[in-house]
Amino acid sequence: MPTLRVDHSPAALPPEAWNRLLAASPRPTPFMRHEYLLALHESGSATADTGWQAMFLSLWDEDQLLAACPAWLKTHSYGEYVFDWAWADAYRRHGLAYYPKLLVAVPFTPVPGSRLLAADDEARALLAQALRALAKETETSSLHVLFGDEADQVALAEAGCMARAGVQFHWTAEGDADFADFLARLQRDKRKKIQQEQRRVREAGVVFEARHGRDIAADDWDYFYRCYQQTYREHHSTPYLSRDFFARMASDMPEHWLMFTAMRGAERVATSLIALDPERRAAFGRYWGATEHIPHLHFDACYYQPLAWCIANGYTRFEGGAQGEHKMARGLMPTPTASSHWLAHPAFADAVNEFLTREGDAIAGYVNALGEHTPFKIAQAGAHKAKDAADAASS
Predict the structure, then answer these.
(1) Tens of pLDDT along 210-243?
(2) Which of 28, 146, 295, 330 has the fewest CB within 10 Å, making it most exposed?
(3) For the chain, which ranges sit under pLDDT 70?
(4) Which CATH number applies to 3-160?
(5) Domains 3-160 and 174-315 share a fold
């Protein structure tokens, strides 16, 4: 009979075995690599002190790792991007404690992908059931698994979890030879707007430099972190990630990072950081910041430069991050996401289930409506993609 284990640090789990399970999962991403999760913990970015108490759950057959997931006891809902603030407020108004809750997610990273790493469906099902048991054992209010893949969704539904639909905006390759080809497929008004925005950036004297992997120097990372902090200051907030986290990324996962630096002469004025999955030819927009306001620079640094790079380097997907239907005008199309939830309190579970049904219908309608506004010339292609996304969101 397999045995279960709970560890309070990813360091307690074997990196090679963890990454093997990830590589065999339906939708691996770099953010679920052992190195990434360990860097979050050891840099102090996601620890009990910041409201992320590690409760990594693993399933073993003697010394063989059968399944595992990154779980956390959370004392707040920051850094998740699947919003349950209203649920927490409802608990509070009824004199009940919503926190701590049990969360399975990648901290501060709204990227869909496999969450329940498992050797097979049977092990995944056991892991899902073990999560429910851990939620009860720790007397948490609820269990939440965010941005999981379809296999995760099935296992968690069988374990009694409710599904919640969401939507993001992703670009997928359509055989363009270069960025000009991509622009040529857009409707005239969308194409002209992008060209005008890029022209304004060039007229401001700004050009971009792209560096990948170990070509990103320490002073590039230092400037990036200065910009990263500035973005949070402008929103009257505090950065989630420490400078040490990015130092660990530079040393432990260099091949997974691409940095664009906006230069005006010899002066840096902005930067954007893109995560890469070289094996699956996928890129992920992550962070941006500027030390000077220049109109339209954000769109160029965060969308146009990464898309041009993806096309030039044979990447087939670019995920623009959480929310933002403005991305659609820039060629990123609606894509469904999903999460799973279980609430211990029966009455609240019933109320949330009713809410999720209504919300899911609304999101399906929203995606359908977006499909009526495809940015591409060939409306049928965009409409078909949006219909497929809407069908997936409502299923």
Answers:
(1) 999 999 999 999 999 999 999 999 989 999 999 9
(2) 295
(3) 379-395
(4) 3.40.630.30
(5) yes
